[in-house]
Amino acid sequence: MGQYILKTDSVHLEFDGRKILQDIYLDCRQGEVVGLLGRNGCGKSSLLRVIFGSLKPTYKHVSIDDKHIYKGYDDGRVAYLPQHNYLPQNIKIQSLAGTIIDPQFTDEFTSLSIYQDHHHKKPGQLSGGELRQLETLMCIYSRADFILLDEPFTHVSPVQAEMFKGIIRKCAKVKGIIVTDHQYYNILDVADRIVLITDGSTKAINNPDDLIRYRYISHII
Amino acid sequence: MTINMICIYYLFRGEVNIVESYIFKIMSYGLIIGFRYYNYNSTKTFFYFRNAGYGIDRLYLYALTCDALAYGILLSLLKLVKYWVSIF
Fold this sequence. Notes:
Oligomer: heterodimer
Order of helices and strands of chain B: HHHH
CATH class of chain A: Alpha Beta
Number of helices of chain B: 4
Helix content of chain A: 25-40%
CATH topology of chain A: Rossmann fold
Number of helices of chain A: 8
Number of strands of chain B: 0
Helix content of chain B: over 70%
Radius of gyration of chain B: 17 Å
CATH superfamily of chain A: P-loop containing nucleotide triphosphate hydrolases
CATH architecture of chain A: 3-Layer(aba) Sandwich
Strand content of chain B: under 5%
Structural class of chain A: alpha/beta
Largest sheet of chain B: none
Number of domains of chain A: 1
Largest interface: A-B, 25 and 10 residues
Distance between the termini of chain B: 30 Å
Shape of chain B: elongated
């Protein structure tokens, strides 16, 4: 399997005349986890949606292996975990999983207790926490070459967050993963490198002190 | 399918012709698409299909084309059956 590289460059995005993203460069290779940090409303989720193709900016250049892609989800190249629930409510989980899970991870995914316990149910029958856990795992284990995770650690217990991090690291051996969350310590833990969005532009973070310098955090926990 | 049945019912009662029934179906497609796009909960599930590698526009195109073809085949078969019944 070749090591593809996803590049996002020159994204210009504005809402009602307010510039959200204007000086963006973000790349991700298969085999690495890129952590994306930034304050509320700085455009993290918007940037992920621009890459995925579900949000149209004024201008963008997104490519995989230097081949321009119009929408990341075309041909299943990029998968995206949105902040909201996304599974159709009235289809059995085993049917939903069959379409989306990467065949090389099928055995691993189907052996998870959350799947074992609920595969015969429909998403509408699960609790909010169970559904979020399943949706996150289905996205991480999906067929796409690149996975975009928008707040996977929010609303999950510390034990589940640890489990997600282990699975992210394992899947990142063959996929490129971009992950964003406000629980920055989990991002620092799981990511191979960190990118911060501030004032509409991306900044490479070389050490955690840079986060203080850019006033993202006041001190390291 | 419900719309197919309604169209066929009125067609066989002679209240609409085939062209009118297809126009009725196209209007119903517009309503279905409009409802899906403006229903907040429906647009959330678009992300599942996109993650599975299906574009939403393409998905609608395939589904509605299949429906229109199924309607045509069903209509032809029923016309044929009606014709045979009238002969025998």
